[in-house]
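Form 7-S
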Amino acid sequence: MINVHYFAFGPFQENTYVLWDETNECIILDPGNSTASENKKLNDFISQNNLNVKRLILTHSHIDHINGNKYVFDTFGLLPEVHKDDVYFIEKQVATANMYGIPTIQSPMPKEFIKEGDLISFGNSSLQTLHTPGHSPGSISYYNLEDKFIIGGDVLFYGSIGRSDLPMGDHDTLIKSIKEKLIPLGDDMKVYSGHGMPTTIGFERMNNPFLV
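Output:
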């Protein structure tokens, strides 16, 4: 069984995820930590649970989801893994941080890229991958059918959807990703989003004003 824990980090209150199973191998998804106290909170959780960090995985590369990449690299020696279409945002990280007036430390560049159909394995567990563009061109959603959850970044939120007015975003593409990729996974799938509280596919299918 995969355990899921998340922290809300940074000025955008971005959800940073740690996933692990009975082997204590874990992965970090979307590290948004950018201060000494946030770095300590993440590291303390990993240390106190005796976790062995194996991979650094990104749903996408917007500034709030990559601010902790350098810390994870320095601490655990892991380079980020992301869809190739989102490398642009890592390249523009410092300029974006300056635009928003927030601190950042440049992320190392990825050497491994994720595409739809890849398996993200750790311990005895794995996540399947779906390319779900629209919020960003390289957005990836990670899901596990056995444990019935999705980590979808900023694609689908409780009662809302991701922004599509950012560079290379597209509203119609985003809606298509949700309706053709996420909704078919089933109403009982729990959705862990990039911001805010979790939801389910069933709740959003019936109540989300962007989908009904």
